[in-house]
Amino acid sequence: MKKGYFGDFGGQFIPELLMPPLIELEEAMKTILPSEEFQTRFTNMLKENVGRPSAITYCPNLSKDLGLDLWLKREDLNHSGAHKINNTLGQGLLAKMMGKDVLLAETGAGMHGVATTVAAAMLDMKAVIYMGATDVVRQAPNVGRMRLMGAEIVAVESGTKTLKDAINAALRRWLSDQETTHYCFGTAAGPHPFPTLVREFQQIISKEAREQFMARNEGKLPDVVVACVGGGSNAIGMFHNFVPDESVRIVGVEAAGTGEPGCYSSAPIDHGTDGVLHGMMTKLLQTKDGQIEPSHSIAPGLDYPGVGPEHAHLDAIGRVDYTTINDSQAINAFKVLSRREGIIPALESSHAVAYAIENREQLQGKSVLVCLSGRGDKDLGILDQIL
Ligand SMILES: *Cc1c(COP(=O)(O)O)cnc(C)c1O
């Protein structure tokens, strides 16, 4: 396999000026990451600050309703409410041990910005968060949280003033400040080595879940493992340690948007074609001429026109089945899990729960382990607007 590739996908499609910090990061992954000092500090922080291991939870009521055994891996119980902290804390500690004192990140809905700011505060580093000016207004509560925890927010006024403009501006900042600054990438995508680095920090989800499930089920593995796929970080974390288990069916759920014919979606594996975006070769939603198409999902964290390259590869080799769930199916799952189990899931995670609900006929009698990537308190405003 070519370095930095997963089959035909991945690579480093970036301006040459960005090579030095990526090479420096790759070096740190070989020297600092495996060191006893890093591993001990990271493990302790995951335990004391994040609250790991996160539980797995059996859902007795919904299991009975659906005629299957539904289990949840509870990343919603992590400090700051989702899986993102596993990655930002890992990259933050790595950057600190590399001698950097600034964590730079871009954010759309603000969740990755918040997780980066939390990590920076814990590690006594500075957080600089790039956000499209439109998003700064739309996502005021997250902007407030970030400022409270000490982040500098840079509102980007160029282009459409949203996520992709924030990414471009943040990359320029990294070019000029690479001595002091680490670019804390938010998902298992982007140029090599980010997809591998982010997987390294998120694979703890399946490491724990696999052991926890077997301990509760007389050594048996689950029949089906499910996660939602935006950029792909909670999913690759949930899949990684199950990939060698041939008996386990693995399902990635992309967002279909409204589900109407011709609507914008966030499902590049199901509806996209091969292309290059944000430094990687992957599956993209694009026109025939290679212009990126707008994406849509009711779940802000899934609203991305690309996907991490390892998912494109797992799809190509047929190891993972990728499918879609639309907005209204996700809203239904949001309500059903809240009502039947007293757990309010993030709208992103609701897509994974909806898979079990919508496919209950084929899943009769099976054990289904779903990654609950985050909690849904943040989404009550979106729901209020709709209902
Ligand atoms: C950000 C987010 C996602 C999507 O990101 P991935 O990198 O695909 O995991 C999913 N769920 C929650 C709760 C999120 O905050």
From TrEMBL:
GO cellular component entries: cytoplasm
Reactions catalysed: (1S,2R)-1-C-(indol-3-yl)glycerol 3-phosphate + L-serine = D-glyceraldehyde 3-phosphate + L-tryptophan + H2O
EC class (word): lyase
Coiled coil: none
EC number: 4.2.1.20
PROSITE patterns on file: TRP_SYNTHASE_BETA (PS00168)
Pathway: Amino-acid biosynthesis; L-tryptophan biosynthesis; L-tryptophan from chorismate: step 5/5
Listed cofactors: pyridoxal 5'-phosphate
Residue ranges occupied by any Tryptophan synthase beta chain-like PALP domain in the UniProt entry: 52-374
SUPFAM superfamilies: Tryptophan synthase beta subunit-like PLP-dependent enzymes
Modified residues annotated as N6-(pyridoxal phosphate)lysine in this record: K84
Keyword field: Amino-acid biosynthesis, Aromatic amino acid biosynthesis, Lyase, Pyridoxal phosphate, Tryptophan biosynthesis
InterPro entries for this protein: Trp_synth_b_CS, Trp_synth_beta, Trp_synth_beta/beta-like, TrpB-like_PALP, TrpB-like_PALP_sf
GO molecular function: tryptophan synthase activity
Family: Belongs to the TrpB family.
Subunit (UniProt): Tetramer of two alpha and two beta chains.
Biological function: The beta subunit is responsible for the synthesis of L-tryptophan from indole and L-serine.
Family matches, as HAMAP family: Trp_synth_beta
NCBIfam families given in the database record: trpB (TIGR00263)
Name this protein carries in UniProt: Tryptophan synthase beta chain
Gene: trpB_1
